[in-house]
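user: can you give me the structure for this one chain? tokens are fine.
assistant: on it. calling the predictor now.
[tool input]
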Amino acid sequence: MTSPLPSLEALLIAPACEVLLARFGRAATVATLREELARLRASRRFPVAADAVLDLAADALARRFAPVQRRVFNLTGTILHTNLGRAPLPPEAAAAAAAMAHPTSVEFDLATGRRGERDAPISELLRALTGGEAATVVNNNAAAVLLVLNTLALGREVPVSRGELVEIGGSFRVPEIMSRAGAKLVEVGTTNRTHPRDYQNAIRPETALVMRVHPSNYAVTGFTAAVPLADLAGIAHEARLLLVEDLGSGSLVDLAAWGLPHEPTPRASLAAGVDLVTFSGDKLLGGPQAGLVVGRADLVARLNANPLKRALRLDKGRLAALEAVLRLYLTPERLSERLPTLRLLTRPAPEIRAAAERIAPALHVALPDHLVAVTPCRSQIGSGARPLDLLDSAAVTLGGDALDSLAARLRALPIPVIGRIGAGRLWLDCRCLDATEEPDFVAQVSSLL
């Protein structure tokens, strides 16, 4: 009696199986074939030819081995999108990280032939770019804050304004980070108004340092008051205490020079008297995820001597990418051309509208059941970096029914398209769609037909 399903042995010797074995290996191919045979047997879908079983196994193997993290089109309207990797890297940084496939001089001094310091190139660049005496780097800004507090305020008190007890996202909440670092939070002032006397009254023998936290992801407006940074430095230093500032987003240049909202810089903070400044590498700075610390050399030396530093350090790939990005800042007159984050932030609205008008016809043809229009909109700088500052932009909007289903179809494209749904339409903000990417976008839209 003929079996309704081919045997595993018969499938393995089939010519079509040789491709699967070569691509996915014997163990994975055998396991997947067994799973497909068991599924077909349980569903009692008989008879099934060997080629059909192999096709099912090929699809299952392709899904199993497909990378989860993939290139996408960020058409959400949020430039520094946390869930989409924040800052896009410049080609120089991507190439530097790719070179890590080979042995590198990450901790080797080529001049002396001896062991080197992995942070040395980053520290030298940050000193030049911020005016700090020294610098160090860890894997993100939360880690930088953790390291600073654990090193300089372990078991001691740290006054922070109530208006700065922010939650950036995930598990980064200032009170909890402070607790994990072993420091004791002392809340001063009120949510909307903090005065010099609030800090002065909070200082005791148990106080280790004063901390200022930049509210990167929200704003308090109206009846407000805050102590100017230079005045706060004076209060801390008069009491023989340190002043530490968490700048969060970490712009190395004054964005106002490009017509963007002003963002405080580490250089300005150090000039105002701050002893240590922490900030991110993957937000306004435009580099890979990293936490940077600049300031007094003696304090940075203490950070580097903390055993936590090794646990929080950067790998060689991100160090190489960060170095490449920081070198772009050495020629600030070319920065808006070479740094993708700044280029996207300063992209003119007419140029964005032109991009929307170029891709709209392809969407109109591919999606005849949806109303396609080019519509003015506002882009957001970032969910954790000046989210309240909006930039003029343009989007292709798609109206009609089943917008959730349409959004899912766009996410299922070879290069997933990520938009946002609002006001009864699906918005594809074109600010982050580079002209060089438009052909890839248009080419795959035809598959929506």
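assistant: here you go. The domain at 73-83+344-448 is CATH 3.90.1150.110 (Aspartate Aminotransferase, domain 1). The CA atoms of residues 153 and 208 lie 5 Å apart.
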